[in-house]
């Protein structure tokens, strides 16, 4: 069971827009808890293109996507947001007192007066290989990312995939794991050429096994403990490899998932809003950034920033009705 958090605003999504919403809410003295399925803040910027320069952020002729995220996190920090990372918001319900209660995949509970949905195209999660019963092994013998190399010391590890993660981990685990077997459906990898060359050199030296061209076919185990990974070649000839750990590295995808079940109107995977306030069809739930839709919406970071400011002000009016807010520039107000 996770912890219980009481806050003014629950922000679903720590992408660039969710992060800026923390700042805007903070400037209006509203406290935020931010939840994201990813282990780090940054949404698409960090997960999909951290090292690409962005050219259309006002005031930045060019800024690397990860640098933008780092700046946004630093800008939000004076307001001391609580980040609940690596957990997906699964449930959202309204309590009798009118507040919202959110439940996450880690069992955390967040109670908030207002919800700001900054969920982009949905929660990021790993692409799972379609293997029967794989859920049984997840978290015990099947992992979609590695936290510490040391945890795999002495294990027989099968890595599946052909991109940078598969190749880099194949190299990194070669001298830690008891055996590393890299399964890919082609002989050619989609990774940095020098990394691919290193991986192939390790295979030639007999330090790892390259299992190509093969695809994952099945898993054998005892309870949650993996015993063997079955792979099949293009002629469907099955080969059995004894293994303790499977690391499927097939990239990330985004999934709206439970958001579709919270009573929000959805149009083509987006939530229609009043563009002046971010209000959705559910009073108290606002939407900003890529997930928010209205006519001629530009799905850009700068648009999301403005939406976050509008939504923060609307949230403040909702949480403190009748309380006149004297408008001040940040230059006058400063930050804590
Ligand atoms: P996202 O960045 O998508 O973040 C949403 C977050 O919400 C995700 O981290 C997700 O895990 C989380 N989430 C969703 N649902 C849940 C849930 N139920 N529980 C927990 N967490 C959840 N835009 C520009 O303005 N300029 C550019 O030059 C530019 N270049 C781009 C290049 C590429 C390759 C790509 C892919 C996009 C580019 N974009 C660019 C678009 C820009 O990245 C998006 O507009 C921006 O990331 C949207 O921010 P967001 O905060 O709304 O959503």
Write the layout of secondary structure elements.
Elements: E1 4-12, H1 16-27, E2 32-36, H2 43-48, E3 53-54, E4 63-64, H3 65-76, E5 82-85, E6 89-94, E7 100-104, E8 109-117, E9 123-126, E10 156-160, H4 164-173, E11 179-183, H5 193-204, E12 209-211, E13 214-222, E14 225-233, E15 238-242, E16 245-248, E17 252-255, E18 271-272, E19 285-287, E20 292-293, H6 301-319, H7 330-333
Parallel strand pairs: 1-2, 1-8, 2-5, 8-19, 10-11, 10-16, 11-12, 18-20
Antiparallel strand pairs: 3-4, 6-7, 7-8, 9-17, 13-14, 14-15
Helix pairs in contact: 1-3, 1-6, 4-5
The structure holds flavin-adenine dinucleotide.
Flavin-adenine dinucleotide binds at residues 12-18, 35-38, 43-45, 48-49, 54, 56, 88-89, 118-124, 258-259, 289-290, 299-302, 304.
Query: How many helices in DSSP terms?
Result: 7
Record field, number of beta strands: 20
Named at the architecture level, the CATH assignment of the largest domain is 3-Layer(bba) Sandwich
- Write down the secondary-structure element order: EHEHEEHEEEEEEHEHEEEEEEEEEHH
Question: Short summary of the structure?
Answer:
The protein is an alpha/beta fold and 336 residues long. 22% of the residues lie in helices and 29% in strands.
């Amino acid at each position: 069971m996770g912890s219980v958090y009481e806050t003014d605003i629950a922000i679903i999504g720590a992408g660039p827009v969710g992060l800026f919403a923390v700042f805007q809410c903070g400037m209006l003295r509203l406290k935020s808890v931010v939840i994201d399925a990813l282990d780090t803040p940054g949404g698409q910027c960090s997960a999909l293109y951290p090292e690409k320069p962005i050219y259309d952020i006002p005031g930045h002729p060019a800024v690397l996507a990860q640098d933008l995220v780092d700046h946004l996190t630093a800008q939000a920090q004076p307001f001391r947001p609580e980040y609940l990372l690596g957990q997906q918001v699964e449930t959202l319900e309204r309590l009798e007192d009118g507040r919202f209660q959110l439940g996450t995949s880690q069992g955390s509970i967040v109670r908030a007066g207002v919800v700001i949905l900054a969920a982009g195209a949905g929660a990021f999660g790993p692409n799972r290989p379609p293997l029967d019963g794989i859920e049984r092994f997840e978290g015990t013998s099947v992992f979609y990312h590695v936290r510490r190399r040391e945890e795999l010391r002495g294990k027989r590890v099968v890595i599946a995939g052909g991109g940078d993660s598969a190749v880099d981990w194949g190299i990194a685990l070669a001298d830690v794991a008891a055996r590393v077997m890299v399964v890919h459906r082609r002989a050619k990898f989609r990774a940095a050429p020098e990394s691919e060359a290193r991986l192939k050199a390790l295979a030639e030296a007999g330090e790892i096994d390259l299992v190509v061209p093969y695809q994952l076919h099945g898993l054998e185990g005892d309870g949650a403990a993996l015993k063997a990974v079955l792979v099949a070649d293009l002629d469907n000839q099955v080969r059995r490899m004894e293994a303790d750990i499977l690391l499927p590295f097939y990239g990330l995808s985004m999934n709206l998932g439970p958001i579709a079940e919270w009573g929000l109107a959805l149009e083509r995977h987006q939530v229609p809003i009043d563009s002046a306030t971010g209000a959705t069809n559910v009073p108290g739930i606002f939407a900003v950034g890529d997930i928010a839709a209205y006519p001629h919406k530009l799905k850009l970071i700068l648009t999301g920033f403005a939406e976050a400011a509008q939504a923060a002000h609307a949230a403040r009016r909702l949480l403190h009705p009748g309380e006149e807010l004297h408008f001040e520039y940040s230059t006058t107000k400063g930050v804590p």
